Amino acid sequence: MWTVKDIQEPDFGCEGLPDGEELCCDVLMMETESGEMRTVGVPDAELYEKDIRPGTLVTIENGRIMKAEG
């Protein structure tokens, strides 16, 4: 199980998000048992859909992060 430590959105400056691109955030997570740190890219819309924010417990299933049950 992992704990989300930080979510960082990319900075596109005054140019903004390029047309047709999906906003993807870097999610910094810490593994609960070992303390290992890992960063994964996750679409911003998916984070909102799954209600994932700093402090959320997550698992990694089939290469995707999922909010932990309970």
Brief descriptors of the model:
mainly beta; five-stranded antiparallel beta sheet; 1 helix; 5 strands; 44% strand; elongated
What is the element layout, followed by pairings?
Elements lengths: L1 E7 L15 E8 L5 E7 H6 L7 E5 L2 E4 L3
Question: What does this protein structure show overall?
Answer:
9% of the residues lie in helices and 44% in strands. The chain has one helix at 44-49, and strands at residues 2-8, 24-31, 37-43, 57-61, 64-67. The mean pLDDT is 87. The protein is elongated, with a radius of gyration of 13 Å. A five-stranded antiparallel sheet has the order 3-2-1-4-5. The two termini are 12 Å apart. The chain has one domain. It is mostly beta strands and 70 residues long.
Query: How many structural domains are formed by the residues?
Result: 1
- Look at the helices and sheets and give the structural class: mainly beta
What's the main sheet like? Answer: 5 strands, antiparallel
Q: What letter string, H or E per element, gives the SSE order? A: EEEHEE
Give the number of helices. 1
What is the molecular shape? Answer: elongated
Percent helix range: under 10%
Q: List low-confidence stretches.
A: none
